[in-house]
Amino acid sequence: MVINMKKSNRNKFSLPAAYTTELSSCGKSVAFIHDSVEVISLADLSLLRKIKEIKNPSSAVFSLDLSRIMIKSTAGSIYSFDVLGKSTGDKICESKGGEGANILLSPDGAILVDPTWGGDVFLRNHESKEIVEGMSFPNEMIMSVSRSLSGDDWLFFHQPQTLEDENFSPPPYLSLWRWPFRS
């Protein structure tokens, strides 16, 4: 499918500046992530919300019902915003050691999967903000996480850290997980 980026024959739709994008799971909205996050409806190419409150946004994920967008900063703080509202975001977590990889939602949308460059993967209830489970990969960075469309299969991209007595960086590797995760 190709999206014609023209609103009409006379007015062109300009794409916002972005270094990455996040498409909603149903394909109805897209977030353009740069120094702000702009949420666009793909049905009519209208701006749903521009979020400027987060310093250095790096990753985003939409709730399954498209009512909220969760955004992670490069420092690791995570906020949740009402897509159509003007309210400020609800802070899900502080940045303490959470720098790093992208965030994703569990298949049912209840759990926010929050991997870090510090080697931890936190499973957070995105409404109560509580960590319900965590996994740790000592001396590794979790560079990114991907999931299948169904959410049953998850791929973690690991980068082992160079240890003091080593002169080279160990090779990265992938690990495949099934939802729900069990270490």
Polypeptide structure, described:
- The protein is mainly β.
- It contains no helices and 15 strands.
- The protein has a 4-stranded antiparallel β-sheet, with no helix packed on it. Strands 5-6-7-8 form a 4-stranded antiparallel β-sheet, with no helix packed on it.
- A hairpin with a 5-residue loop joins strand 3 and strand 4 (47-51).
- The mean pLDDT is 89.
Short description:
Helices cover 0% and strands 44% of the residues. β6 (68-73) and β7 (78-82) form a beta hairpin. The strands form four sheets. A four-stranded antiparallel sheet has the order 1-2-3-4, with no helix packed on it.
Uncertain segments: none
Strand content: 35-45%
**What structural class do helix, strand and pairing data support?**
mainly beta
Order of neighbouring strands in the sheet with most strands: 1-2-3-4
**Roughly how much helix do the residues carry, as a percent range?**
under 10%
Apparent shape: globular
- One letter per element, helices H and strands E, the order comes to EEEEEEEEEEEEEEE
Count of helical stretches: 0
- For this structure, the quaternary state is single chain
| Ends distance | 39 Å
Give the strand tally: 15
Biggest sheet, in brief? 4 strands, antiparallel
Radius of gyration: 18 Å
Q: Indicate the mean pLDDT.
A: 89
